[in-house]
Amino acid sequence: MKLLIIEDEPGLREGIEKYFTEAGVLCESCGTLDSAISKISLYDYDCILLDIGLPDGEGFAVLEHLKANGKNEGVLIISARNSLDTKIKGLNLGADDYLIKPFHLAELKARIDAIYRRKAFNTNNLLVHDLINIDLAAREVKVNSIDLIFTRKEYDMLLYFIANKGKVISKNAIAEHLWGDEIDLADSFDFIYTHIKNIRKKLMEAAHKDYIKAIYGVGYKFI
Fold first, then answer.
1. Prediction pTM value
2. For residue 69, how far is the Cα from the chain centroid?
3. What pLDDT, on the 0 to 100 scale, is given for residue 180?
4. Dihedral-angle region of residue 41 (phi above 0 means left; psi in -120 to 50 means alpha; beta otherwise)
5. Cβ distance 75 to 50 under 8 Å?
6. Cα dihedral across residues 97, 2, 114, 153: positive or negative
7. Beta strands in the chain (DSSP E)
8. Half-sphere exposure of 4 toward its Cβ, with a 13 Å CA cutoff?
């Protein structure tokens, strides 16, 4: 994924860029409307993080520029403005989502990942991995041609595993990605074990193979 971060507060901008870069995302950033327009005029991005309160103008102009030039970048507005009118204006101008500051970086990434998935599968809503077939639009899962029922968290976790197949994912990364700020309230990771146990059981019964490998002391790998 190639991400453009448009945020005028240096500390927040650098923190976001560091977080996404460490997650393997190719990042560029800027802090003014003028530099943002220049970048999106010259380059294509998969997603854009957009602060609408910029020192030299309203970030809404970025949305208008994208629309006028037929560009299809996914846009997540990040703003301290919490009025309904502002949210509606941003969404009507073409933003995909709106997140109020302050926010947890794990939630920010989860929302960006969701936008990226929708954009990436815009012409093909079917995600396939081995015997697993997922209809992203209908949120339906078939394994070995068998319809499987997953809870919302199980479904989100399955998508997260497939998106990171072959990588070792720590329990903490899974928790932060799927629960965000709520993870701070948890006493242990027992809820993760429960979800993984349920996902593994359903997949094994349908596919007769185990896709989830536990890496002792570290986390899990989806194969």
1. 0.57
2. 25
3. 60
4. alpha
5. yes
6. negative
7. 2-6, 26-30, 47-50, 53-54, 57-58, 74-79, 97-100, 126-129, 132-135, 140-143, 146-148, 168-170, 212-215, 219-222
8. 25
Q: Is the pLDDT of residue 152 over 90?
A: no
Query: How many Å apart are CA 223 and CA 220, to the nearest integer?
Result: 10
Query: Which residue bears the tokens 């453009």?
Result: 4
Query: Distances from the Cα of 51 to the Cαs of 28, 78, 187, in angstroms?
Result: 14, 5, 35
Q: Is the pLDDT of residue 120 over 80?
A: no
Beta strands in 25-148 (DSSP E): 26-30, 47-50, 53-54, 57-58, 74-79, 97-100, 126-129, 132-135, 140-143, 146-148
Residue 84, H or E segment: helix 84-92
Tokens (6 digits) for 144: 């070995």
Question: In the predicted model, is pLDDT for residue 156 greater than 90?
Answer: no
Are the beta carbons of 53 and 8 closer than 8 angstroms? yes
